[in-house]
Design a protein that fits this description.
The complex is a heterodimer of chains A (429) and B (246). With 429 residues, chain A is α+β, with helices and mostly antiparallel strands. Chain A has helices at residues 26-29, 83-90, 108-113, 121-124, 152-158, 193-203, 260-272, 282-286, 317-329, 369-382, 397-403, 407-411, 421-427; strands at 2-4, 13-19, 36-39, 55-58, 65-69, 74-78, 95-96, 131-137, 143-146, 167-174, 176-177, 182-190, 209-214, 224-231, 244-245, 276-281, 292-293, 304-311, 336-341, 356-364, 386-387. By secondary structure, chain B is α/β, with parallel strands linked by helices. In chain B, helix 5 (100-128) packs parallel to helix 6 (149-169). Classes of the chains: A alpha+beta (429), B alpha/beta (246).
Chain lengths: 429, 246
């Protein structure tokens, strides 16, 4: 048994960690143990990748490529392959992953189980949209190979399935041709939700990537930065990323009620210098937080919650209500992210990214957050929205059931040998 | 670069091979016990480096005739740049103490077998007047400890063997590199990990090893921090050491 935390660092409870490294021997490793859950790099924020007191199947050792077809762009690999490895290897050959979340340090298996999205959701949908085949191992020894045309129901359950349909052993992905590593980006300062929506609308389809930062401390969007990017015409250039690190967790959260406003102000001032167009490497544009290893330690020993919701476009007023509620509470986030999702429904039964507007905020963990979360939950649910399980550590079961109407359908595909802290919290087992 | 990786399915050897094939054109011979596992690694390396030449062979690692034949055949294919000998097993010391057959197996797999491979390839490298013979030892070979002295003794044996080879091959154009990884996050050390010990990432350890082999240093600690740790461990007087539960 050893302590394991997820990215939010809210808990560090003991787990029986089983290291997987041989994809041919997996069947023998699953049923010997008590119910467990697969664990990649532990980059999900809450308890979707945790199973305190039980088994974690760690997939870091399942990191082999199986085959890559340079002409079709089909990549087969084991579930523990890290997105960065695949990108770094194949980008020079003209191929890239169509969907990249906010960090490169996630495994392919985790990206599927949480059906992650990127800043280009309008253009390429979610990660699961590009899975052409996957091999699922059930704890009873059954092996299920599925894809969009073959046992597609199993694919729909496993994409966004929170690791609960079985262990994803290996997968085949359809990559897409990319011209290179450089993006033409534009940063636009804006104020107001309507301006944000107008900017989002006018950015598609000309701009592939779009996201925005807002200062959430004022109660309305008084200060916002809209960032958009598309492949640059000139792909020449060298880029060397420097990576800083936070070597230890400070004794208290560096983001707190005292520092929140100054930090938001600082972020605004630093980034306002870059207004307008420029050419940037895709790594700092898509993964700004990867520049600081272990940045999650900034929230101190008690960790932090991330609250990411999506609400339908018709209920955009909910975003304003949430920002007002957050400002009233005195809590808030330095990196409040607002973005729209494209008009496409995801393939997974429990996938998060539905059409609408998504807002994501970090909150350092402290007493008194419950009241704010309860208020936000009420706004999201009333708007017909839902929360992102990959980020969640606390949503009430009723809210999950209301937000994910295909849950009943999903439950038929659950593997009784798979269980996580999240599944017990939200599905009762 | 022509490389022979013996014990190619060990996590350290696998990650060294990844670094090599992704760095430059390689002609790689993977030598393993488990054919299916080696096949999966060869496929992975093939995706990482479509232009690399990758061959694999499986054999009994204690069969002297087979070891000799392997070295002869590999040498017949041309000059060899690196021979990496990386196989090993690390059973729980308590199990070894209660089971002489396991004790014998540990000594054979970790000490005798690598020495035989080293000996077989040393001849050819000596004749060619070039190449690097890299042997994976361990920090556990620096001082016997109750927690893993059977394993540690085999690694100490390899250090003496490498030292002798280095002496023999000095001035002959052949480098002998003894690699001493600290506890590393590999399947071999899964038991350590279960006890909550902090382990080095195998990618980092492999990078240190590849750099050490490039530099031809006689002893490479990986991660480098272990130079200092083992200096202290080796220097502790017995009276103090024997009171420590390490």
């Amino acid at each position: 048994m050893r302590p394991v935390s997820s990215w939010g660092r809210l808990t560090a409870l003991p787990h029986d960690v089983v290291e997987l490294s041989d994809r041919a021997a997996l069947a023998g490793q699953l049923p010997r143990h008590r119910p467990g859950i697969a664990h990649g790099l532990g980059r999900s924020y809450g308890d979707v990748c945790l199973n305190p007191g039980g088994t974690l199947w760690r997939t870091a050792g399942l990191d082999r490529f199986i085959a890559f077809d340079q002409t079709t762009g089909r990549l087969s690999c084991e579930a523990g392959v890290v997105l960065r490895e695949a990108q770094d290897l194949l980008l020079p050959r003209g191929w890239g992953l169509p969907v990249l979340p906010g960090t490169r340090f996630v495994t392919v298996g985790g990206a599927i189980a949480n059906d992650v999205h990127g800043k280009n959701h309008h253009a390429t949908g979610t990660f699961g949209d590009h899975v052409t085949r996957l091999r699922l191992l059930r704890s009873d020894g059954e092996e299920i190979v599925c894809g969009p045309a073959d046992r597609a129901d199993w694919l729909a359950a496993t994409v966004g399935g929170l690791g609960l349909t079985g262990l994803i052993a290996d997968v085949e992905l359809q990559l897409r041709r990319v011209p290179g590593s450089w993006l033409e980006s534009e940063t636009i300062a804006y104020a107001g939700l309507d301006t944000f929506l107008a900017l989002s609308d006018e950015s598609h389809p000309a701009w592939e990537h779009a996201v925005s930062w807002i200062d959430c401390t004022s109660g309305a969007i008084e200060r916002g930065l809209f960032l958009r990017a598309r492949p640059a015409a000139d792909q020449q250039g060298d880029w060397r990323g420097r990576r800083l690190a936070l070597p230890f967790a400070p004794p208290l959260s560096l983001v707190n009620r005292l520092t929140l406003k100054p930090l938001n102000r600082l972020y605004w001032l630093m980034n306002r210098r870059h207004l307008g167009k420029r050419v940037v490497h895709y790594v700092p544009f898509l993964f700004p937080l990867d520049a600081v290893a272990d940045w999650n330690r900034i929230y101190g020993p008690k960790g932090f919650y991330q609250y990411q919701c999506v609400v339908p476009r018709e209920a955009a007023g909910a975003i304003a209500d949430m920002l007002a509620a957050i400002a009233r509470s005195g809590d808030g986030s330095v990196l409040a992210v607002l973005k729209t999702f494209g008009d496409r429904w995801p393939g997974g039964l429990l996938s998060f990214a539905r059409p609408g507007i998504t807002l994501a905020l970090d909150f350092h963990n402290h007493a008194g957050l419950d009241a704010l979360f309860t208020r936000l939950d009420a706004i999201v649910t009333a708007a017909g929205g839902r929360l992102y399980p990959a980020k969640d550590a606390r949503m009430p079961r009723a809210m999950f059931e209301a937000g994910y109407p295909r849950l009943e359908e999903f439950l038929k595909y659950r593997d009784p040998g798979m269980s996580s802290a999240m599944s017990r919290r939200l599905m009762g087992s | 670069m022509r490389i022979v990786a013996i014990g190619a399915t060990s996590a350290i050897a696998e990650h060294c091979c990844r670094l090599w094939v992704q760095r430059e054109p390689c002609d790689l011979l993977l030598v393993a016990r488990d054919a299916a596992k080696a096949q999966r690694i060869a496929a992975d390396l093939g995706v990482r480096a479509p232009n690399a030449t990758i061959a694999l062979t499986t054999m009994d690692f204690l069969d002297t005739a087979a070891i000799e034949k392997l070295a002869d055949q590999a040498a017949a294919g041309g000059a060899i740049d690196i021979v990496l000998i990386a196989h090993g097993m690390m059973p729980d010391q308590k199990d070894v103490q209660g089971d002489l057959a396991l004790c014998r197996r540990t000594l054979e797999v970790n000490a005798i077998s690598p020495a035989l491979f080293a000996e077989a390839f040393a001849r050819h490298l000596e004749r060619m007047g070039r190449g690097t013979l890299a042997i994976v030892g361990s920090v556990a070979g620096d001082r016997g400890r109750k927690a893993n002295y059977s394993y540690g003794a085999t690694k100490g044996f390899l250090e003496r063997y490498a030292q002798g080879l280095d002496h023999r091959l000095a001035g002959r154009g052949v480098k002998v590199v003894l690699i001493k990884p600290g506890p590393t996050d590999t399947p071999l050390a899964a038991a350590h990990k279960a006890r909550g010990r902090k382990l080095a990432a195998v990618e980092d350890v492999a990078r240190t090893i590849v750099r050490g082999i490039d530099a031809g240093r006689p002893v490479v600690y990986a991660p480098t921090l272990w130079v200092a740790i083992m200096l202290v461990v080796r220097s502790l007087p017995r009276a103090v050491f024997n009171r420590l539960d390490i």
